[in-house]
Structure formats: C-alpha cells, structure tokens
Amino acid sequence: MNGKHLIGYLLLCTLTLASCSKSFLQEDPSTSVAVESAISSETDMLESVAGLYRSLDNYFIFGRNYPLFGDLLADNVYLSSTNSSRLLMQNNYTWTIANTEPRTFWSNTYYSILQANRIIGSNLDITENVAQLKGEAYALRALCYLYLINWFAKPYTVDPNAAGVPLVTVSTSITGPLVKPERNTVAEVYDKMISDLDSAFLLMPETTPAIHIASSNFIAKYAAKALQSRVFLYKADYENARDAALSVVQNGGYSLTDSPGDFAAYWASTASRTDKVETIFELNNSATANNGIEGLDFIYAAQGHGDMLVTDDTYAIYQETDSRRALIQDGTRNGMQAYFVNKYPNVTATDRDEVKMIRYAEVLLTLSEAYGRLGDEANARLYLNMVAQNRDHSIAPYTYSGNELLDAIVLERRKELAFEGLRFFDLTRLNLDFTRQNMGTKAYSYYTDVLRTDFRRIQPIPQEEINANPNMTQNAGY
Amino acid sequence: MLQRMLFFNLLLLHGFGGFVALAQEATVRGTVYHRETREPLAGVSVKVVGKTQASKTDTNGTFMLQALPAEAQLSFSMVGFVTQQLPAKSNMEVFLVSEMQALAEVEIVSDGYRTSTRAANASAITSIGGEAFENKPFSTFMQSLQGQSAGVTAVQASGQPGSDVAIRIRGLGSLSLSSNPLIVVDGMIVNAGVLSSYANSSSALAGINQNDIARMDVLKDAAATALYGSRGSNGVILITTKRGNTGKTQVRLDAELGVSSPMDPPEAGKPLSATHYAELFRETLSNGGYAPEQIETLAESYGLNSGLSNHWYDLVTRTGRQQQYNVSLNGGSDKAKIFASAGYFDQEATTIGSDFKKISGLFNYDYRINDRLYLSTGINFSNVDQNTPNGTQYSDNPVWAARMLRPYQLAYNADGSLNTEVSGNTNFPGVYNPLWIAAHDKKHLSETRILGNTQLKWNIWDKLNYTSYFSIDYNTVEETIFLNGTMGLGASVGGYGRNYYRRYFNWLSRNQLDYRYDIPGFSDFYVTASVGYEAQRSKEYYLAALGYGFPSGHEDLTALSNAATPAAIVGQYSNYAFTSLYATGGINYQNKYALNLSWRRDGSSRFPTNNQQANFYSIGGTWNVETEDFFKRQNVFSSWKIRSSYGTTGNANLGNYDWLPQSSYSGNYGYAGYNGQQYNIIGSRNLRWETAKKFDVGADIGFAEDRFVLTVDYYYNNIDGLIQSVPTSLTTGFASASQNIGAMVNKGWEFTVKGDVLRVGNFKWFSNFNVSFNQNVMKRTANAAGPSGLYYLGEGYNFYTYYMKEFAGVDPANGDPLYYVDASHAETTNNYAEAQFSILDKQSNPKSTGGFNNVFTYKGFSLGLDFNYSFGNWIYGASDLYFTSGAIYTYNKYQFVYNRRWTTPGQVTDVPRFSTTTDYSTSTFRLYSGDYIRLRNVSLGYDFKKLAMFNKLGVSKLHVYARATNLWTILFDDRLPFDPEVSYAGNEYQNMLKYKTFTFGVNIGL
After folding, report:
1. Which residue of A7, A23, A24, A27 is the best one to mutate when testing the B interface, meaning the one whose CB has the most B CBs within 10 A?
2. Are strands B837-843 and B801-805 parallel, antiparallel or unpaired?
C-alpha cells in the first residue's frame, strides 16, 4: 500500500467513523427511559398509572399529611405533649412560609399532577384499557387539584374569583422547565376539576377492564363520579352534587357493611376490597410499599408514634352505642388518659393500613346534604338515616328539619369521616368559625379559636415558588 | 537542526562572559571545563580551523596556542563531547557539553498529541521528573504533587491512606461539575477521582506505583489543553511511565521501611484532659444557672468524681508501620527495549481501623519492527486493598470519637474487655465505643485495575507518520461493608451488611497522521500538520446488595449471604462515549518564531443530540528572543523566551444521562403489586458544554548560563456557560433544572525559579521555588446575588466568599459574645439576632500557594527539603459547634476554649463565658485563617561512590536514605484547632488525622 492509498483509506475510516458517530454517541440509561417514549404501550401506561398512585401515597401528601391535617388543623385531633417532634407548628397554628409541610403539599401534589398530565397527554390509541387508565389519571388529577385548591385558596363559597392555584395540564416535557404560570381563579380550577371528572367518567368503562385488578386501590368509573359529588358539594353546587351522588348510589353498586361486627372487621382489615363494600377508593399500603414510621397509621396508632390524639369534644359526639366510637381507643399516654385513633391499627403488621380516600358513606351524606340544601328534606333524612342507623342500630331515625337537619348532616359527616381528613374542608366551605379544644397538659400546646378571618386557614405558597416564579402571588397574611 | 540549536545556546553561554575578538596575531591561553561537573578537562584537542596548528589541554585543562591569525576560529573536540567552534580570544574559558547531556537538554515537550522542543513550545506546561515521586512514603503519587508546580494544588483532606487527592490547576474550574483535571496515563484518558460507593475516601489512581512514573506533565493553558477539547478546561495531567533504555540491562531494587505517627492537632485543638473537662463541665452548668446540688448530681452521674477516665485521642491513634518494595528491570537494544517492575506498598494508618496495601506491576515493551515500523506496548496491573473506619460524623468514627467522647466515658470494663454498655453516662448511651466499632465493623475496599495500551508508529515516508493507538482501562471496585449487631449503626437490625461491585471497562482508540513540510530555500523553516480521530467508550456495571440479621455467635460470618433478611438489590449500568476529530498545525522559523494551531471537534453521549458536537481551538505563538542578534549584546540574561496562547476548552464532567428527561423504574414507584414508573428526572434538552476561554502569556528567562530559569505566567480563564441548578416553578413537578448560565473568571500570576542556586566545589544547591496567585470572580450567576449556604454568591465576588455574622470578641464586663451590628463595625451587640450578615473579605480558596523544594548535594550526600505553603484562605469549622459550645456540654471541647474562655470581669479574651445559655450560632467565631507553611519532606541520602566492594557482588549503585514527611507545620492562627489542609470549599468536618512518616530506604542497582 503506498502512501496515497493509505491516506485515502484513513480518510475513509475517519469519515465512516464520523458518520456512524451519531449512534456511537447514543447511550441510554439502564433504569429509565426518555420521558417522550415512556408511554408507548398499554403496559407502559399501566406502569405510569401505578407510579402516579404511588406518588400520591407519599406521606407529605395523601399518604399522611393531607388526611392528617384535615383533622389536626380542624377540631378533631391534637398533638400529645409526649410526641416525636413532628408537626409541632401545625398543632400550634404557627407555621410560616419556610415550613416544610405547605411546601411539600405544593411540590409533591404538582409532581403527581405531572405524572397524570403525561398519561393524559399520551397519544396511545384509545382502547378500552387506555380509556380506563386515562380515566383514572383524569380523576386523580382532579383529586390533586381539589386538595390544592382547598389548602391554598379561599373556599369557592367565599370567593370563586379569588386567586386559586395554577392549572398545569401539560407535561413539563412539552412545556419545558422554565414556565412561570400564574394562579388561576378558584372558579377556573373548579371548572377544570369538574371537566376532568366528566372526562374520567366518560372514558372509563362500566366494568373495569382486565388491565389491572378491579379493587378499591384503583379509581373506577363511579369513584370518579363520587369524587365529583364532593367537588360539587365544596362548590355549593347542590343540584349537581345531588345528581352525581345519586348516580353513584343508583349505579355504582356500593354498599355499607351490615353489622357492627362487619364494620369493625372492615376497619381492622388491611386488604383492598373487590366487593364494593364501604370503600370506593383507597391508597394501597402493602408490605413492600408503605410509609413506614411516617405513615398515617403510625402517627395515629398507640403502638406507633401515637402523637395525634382525639379531643374529648370529638369523643363526646359519639353515642355509646355508636359502632364508630370503637374506632377510638381509650388508653393512656405518659400516665395520662388519652384517646387514640384506631381506624388504622395495623402498624405492627407488615401489610399496612390503606389510606381511605372516598367511602360510600360520604357519598350518601353528600347526597343527604345536597337534598337538604335544596329543600328536599325527606330525601335528606332518608340518606342521613341510612348512614346513622347503619352505624348505630339502636337509634330511631332522625326527624330533624330545617337548620337542625342540616346541622345533623354536618355532624354526621364529622362522626363518619373523622380522621380521614375531610373535616377541615367542611368547616371552610361552610365558612364556620371553630374551636380546637384546649387539652391542657395532655397537649403539646394549643390554639383554640380559628375564626373565619384567620389567615392560616389558607396555607402559604412556598417561598421557593415565589422566588422561582415572578408571576406567583402569596396568600394574605404570610 | 538540534545541533544548530545547541550551537546557538552555546554561543549564548559565552555571551555571558563577554569577549573581545582578537584583532591581530596573538597568543591565546585558556582552560576547558566539563560543563556539568565544572571540572577541568584534560586531553581536549584544540585546533585552529583551516590550519594544521593544534594543541591539547593538560591535566589542569589548560592549553596555549601561539601566533594565531586575526579572527581565528578554534575547534574544541573530545570523544563523548559535543565539538565546539569558537573565535579565539585571550584567557578563554571553554565549557564542553557531554553528548549525553546535550541529548537530554533538547527537551521534548509533549501535550500528548504532538511533541516539540522546548524552544518551539508555546504552551504552559510544567514537567515534573519521576524523581519527585520515587521512594516517597505515600499511598498515592498525587500526594507528591503538592507544592511541585506553580498553579497546581493537590489537597488530600483525609488521612486515610489511598484517599483521593483533589487537584486543582489554576483554581476552581466549575461550580456544579467536577473541577478535577483530566488524567491521562500513557495516552489513555482514564476514569479518575472517586469511583467507590461507600468508602468515599479512595482514589481510583491509588494503584499507580509512584516508582513507575517517568515524568508528569501538567498542562495548564489553552495551547496545551485545547486538544483535549470538551474535557480540557480543568487542565490535564499526563503521566508517562518508565520505558526501557538501550544499553546495559539495569536491575534496581528498592526497599523502604518506616513508621508513621499521627499529626496531632494544633495545641488549640487538642481534646481536653479529664481534669480540664470536669472543670469546664461544672463551670458551664454553673454559669447556666444550675444549682450547686444539681451540678453535683450531674457530675456524679457523668463519672466526674469516679477517678476513672481515659484519653480517647490516645486510644484511637497509634503508631503505624509501613513498608514498600520495588524491583525493576530496564534494558534493551536498538531493536527491543523493556521496562518491567513489580511493587508492594503497605501502610498502616495512625488511626485505628485504617490501612492500605498495594500490589502493582508494569511491563512496557518497545520493538522496532523495521526502519519504518515501531511498536510500543504496555500493561500496568494493580490491586489496592484498603480498610477505612466509619466516616460518619459520630462516635463510630474514631476521629469524631476522640473529639466528642468525654474522658469519663470508659473504653474498657474493669476486667479489660471492651465496654459496650449503652446505659449510664460513663458508658455509651446513644453513642458508640469506637474501639468496639473498629474491632467489629468492616469497611473494606479492593480495587483492581488493568491499564493496557498498544501503539504502532509507521513512518510512511520521510516526513509522514501514522500512529495508531489503542488502550484499555479495566477497573473493578469491590466494597464490603459490615456493621456489627452488638453496638453501632447495625445494632438495631442485628448486624447489617452491604456489598458493592463496580466494574469499569473503558477503551480508547486513536489514529493520527503527522506531516512535516520543509519550506524549500530556507533552512530550519518548516510547517507541521496532523489530523487524527479518537473514539472512547466507558461502561460501568454496578451491582449492590444489602441485608441484615447476621449470626450473632459467629463474628467472622460477615459475608452477605449470612444475612437473614435480604433488603435491597441494585443492578445497573452507566456508560459514556466520546468521538473526536482533531487537527493541529504549526510553523517554525529557525526556532526563532513558532506558531501552533489546534482544533478539535468533540462529540459526547453526555449531551442532547442537538448539542452533542462542539468545536474547540487554540492558537499559540512563541518568540525565542535569545536567538536575536540584539539579545546577544546584553549579558544579564542567558535566555529569554516569550510565549502566549488563547483558545477554548470544555468541561463535560456531568452525569452520563443528566440531560435526558427521564421516566424511571424503581421499587419506590410500584403500586399494589404493579411495576411503576415516574417522570422523575427533569433533564435539560438544551444543556451544553461549559466552555473556558483561556488566555496565557508567559516568559522563560534564563540567568547565568541558564543555571537558573525564571518562568512567569499570567493567565485569564473566562469560563462561560457554567451549569447551574436554576430553580423552577414547583408547578413543573421539579424544584430546579440544570442550565448553562453561570460565568466566572480565574486569573492570576505564576512564578517559578528553578535551578542551581549555589555551586561551590562539590557542594550544590538545587532549588525550585514557585508561587502562584489566583483570583476567582463570578461574572454571572443563575440567581440574584445572595447567600448560598455559608457563602455569598454574586457577580463580582469570589465563588467561595464567606457570608456570616461577625464575631466581635467578648464583652470584658460579663463575658457575653459580641457581634458587629453591621459591616461598618461601628457598633457591637450581644444579641445575635440583632447582628447582620456581612459579606466578608475572606474566602475559602487560597490567594497564593506554592512550594519551595531544595536538594543539597555534597559528594555522595544529598539532602532534600520540600516546603509547601498556602496563604489567604479561611476555614470554617463545620463541626466545631459541638467542640466549642457550652450548650453541648456533654461533648469534649477544644483546648483553646478552655484556655481562653472568659472567667473574670475585666478579662479581655476571645472565647465567651462558658455556659449552657450562651448563643453559639454560626459566626466568624468558628472561622479560622488557613495560612500555613509545611515542611512536607526532609530526606537525607548517601550514594556509595566507592563500590569496589559491592562491585564484586554485582552492585553498581547503592543509595541509602532516610526520610521524614509532614515533620513541621507553621500556622498563623493560634486558634486553629485542626490541620489547615482541608477541602477547597473550606469546610472542616473532622477528617481522618493525617500523619508524619519516618522511613528508611535503600536503592540497589545491579
């Protein structure tokens, strides 16, 4: 080979190498995929939906803090003077913009919304399975916005035109990371939730297809409708709340437990349900996937941290014959009598308690309240008694009317849904002043009167968001 | 050409003496000397050019020639010496250079892609000879680098043998990416830094045997580094291993034995004795308002009255032993040359539970296939075996234990067994007995590396060369961690084990064509050009497993398979690839002027597809002023060279897949039994290289026949597109995204004076003094100017500018700590909350660093004295709250706290009244000056000259030496409680204690 040939040969080598360098430089990670191609089959979508559910179970949001704050910041629960140093500022109503909990409400919920957005935005052909999974993502996105709007904005019933939260509905992989969204109004966020839940309901088949198990761990068609009845109720749109709730009652196939024994067994179980009894939707906590010592069960249960105790006032709302009173355990803490929450008792088991998100009894009480507020007292009493008499077989049907009836319904919601994180929303949507009982030396500290003017009824927008996003406005008072 | 250059040089040498050419016939006398030894040379033939007249020097080196014609030229020649021709003059002094020396002096400068003579070189490259590394008692060769070269710092923050040495060339190179220089070993770009998972104090390069290093070149400016393209911005370190020489085969044996002792903390930072601790304990409680009976109850409970105490510092430190042995063989013919070596290094650290062993082998082979083909190949094998104590900031770390444990916490039970009792304040409630931990926990690392390369050079025709190079860097890192089930972090789970396995397979191929064109009609006027292509891929495979619940009765069963509960498994890989096309060009006119150009187009898998390729270039020029006629008219300087360069380089040290928005799978994302994925990595689709635009201008100035040379460099590195984490709206689902936003400048001066300072008879003093001044200035940052941890990050400030409240001393009246209200220092307050944060004129990176390295020789003796120093940096005692605060009275304290605390009204001091209620929040109280000068190395050696006795045994060379390292350190802050050589960020977390070594060694040549 002479020199000229060699140069030619080498140049050829170089060019071939250079031209194939594109694929040579293609290196792909081994535990992840490019987000653009992450959902390209039904199984991909199922795994993305699983990732979405799991993100919700994070203890900073639905795994603990959302359901806990709904009672701790309301009038059901207080922090024991003997505690693990968790959530001291929440008990005392002294949190600031620098507080971790509001920040993680915000950041983790938007992280879950991101997971939902990329499922909703995927361009897979709509098969029955895809429709089901996308429907679940729509419903879960609405669930996320419902909690965001209720923790970070004024209640719809107070000012629908108030600043809400930014409506982010497109995946960050499409918008790019540098978007600086403004806050939408409360009404706009409600409209979006309602339309998301309509989409969810329309997309999902009547019978959950075989892509995953049909259990209480997943959103089903009527779970979306049930959630929508809650959205309408918080919006004080009672006609739509009634229609949505009625649709669940008539078509959902859900039922309450029959006996107090069944009811107790229901709460003692950690298994998800496929029989549509009581639970409409709950977040799975299994032996391998749970929040450990940060779980909702662990902070309540006497064998866990047992930090969060039931106020005497709350205990007193239950009759002795009420099977729900058995869900509060009378015990001692640091030598003093204390009421422990016993709805989530399985902290020592490997398979841990699910976090209840929507139960049938709530839908019945929503239906009752909607009827009541629309003036149909007979139906209001019907559904109120359906719950009340199921839980306490010894009582006669309530015969209240007028405001007494409405108060009885709200009280029944408190009794039924205590320690499930919904109490605070009832107090804010009805714009009520409320009193958090001072438990004296049993309590870490106290902050009793929460007036409707108290700025801490709304959480602060995290400072990080304000710093990074010039279009963001802070809530009053912070 | 080379001869001609030498000739110029020799002319210059004579310029120094100054001479008057003879105008008429005369008698000429003179003396001829050996230039290196300065001894007179006998038997040199002195001829008059063009005549038959000749003479020879006598035993005194003198000669005489009579009746010479005007402007006669004399020729001096002798076998083994370079012939010189000089104009005759009276009283001539002639210095002949040996041929060997002449060859050596035509110094070759290489940046790894091209070589040039020192004269034609336009780059800022410091070459460090192998002797700087040989026979050093260090576990990694990089420890020898500190103080060797201007602009280069090499800090080993930890005293763990084998731990990583952080090298910085001309300052901080990046904010979020690595600032480590690129390491190239025999042409191979290796995976360097820290490759281990858990034993984070291990260097990937610890396996390289320092006795195998022939030379190290530190490439600093653009002209030198631009050919490394996307990876050159932090500078490049080229390591060349020893290769065979022609001539007699040489066998060399080196043996060294020694001991090490801990470098005790400065007096200010010694842990308190039992008596002092007890006194302080009572005082802080008393000042804190505790009643006397309360204090006595506590004192009793803490064992202060027991009379039983121990000195933790002594318990966790020891005298270490160390040894190293090397054997090498060097030889060959014109046809084939080999260098082979084997080495063993064993060091026991001065902290319990810490040691290091290294086995290494090198085989380099060069073979001339024919006149046109030349093959070089090499293989370097090493295994590093290292034990490290726990590195937590807690009492299972022996260094922390020595600091925090009270003298009254007893290491041993009365029966002499180790105390593992966890209740009772004289035992270990909530803390651990470090002696038990050291005896029962295990943190072991074994790293095996094989570096192999083959190079074929083909001289296609006279001026065209082709080089093909292929290299492999195969590296496995195995780590086994075991935490015992009795006491410590593993106790709650009945023993805890973790295994990590990482394997790196990294290959590089390079093909290069070099061409030289001599411009017709000129002598020594030529153009060079080269073009090449390089491809590299590194594949990492990572496997890890974790389990707990180990057999309690069989301590030795620590292998992971014994775990009752397997807890986690990890298996993944991580790869990167680079492709590069590069070209260089140069033009050289008689070594007077030279101009070099380089260009490189890099592609990297670490960047988004649309930004994968980037171009880097440099231009450099040099002017050898000494070759000009006008230069010869002066006699102050013997040589003067000016060089300058400008160019761009990059930094691609980011994670392999960081740019890619990703949806990941993990056990943490699964739900209700289904596998799950989450969009968890935001990525950045517009991420690019960080780019450094480097300017350098320098001069090499020789004095006294180049007996010593001053090198001066000024540099200005403008680093742009620094990747910073930019906060994003949390509504995106993420808190931040990486963007190429930041910009900063590193600028500075470097000075080196190197050469024989003194030559008196047989006494010689060789010295290398270097100093560099570096300044870092932020030009743009992602965020508005403001605090960033301990620092203030803003345009116009050093990246590591401290930002904290300023301690103003102690109120003599009541012992309260005082703080300046604001930066004006007009007012002080004893209320911490009232004081404002100040942007301090203090930063963590030094303003000036350097070394002063000396070798004194007299006959067979040689004395080496190496100093290094660092000035202008400040260190924040990040852990010092625990060791200075009265509120944390259950921890032992620094000696200076005891010595200087306020006790009596009117006392002027700088440590506040010691009390549980004093506010010890972050302030300049815990900021210390890091200035120091260290005597890094003292060695005394003797070369046995009269080897007759040994010759019979076949010994041709015998050298013995004794060496001490880190013998002496001068500090400038009498409160500094720890060693000043800390990480560049200036945080001190009680790293493992460094040590002094005392070694004795022998080198035998056969």
Report:
1. A27
2. antiparallel
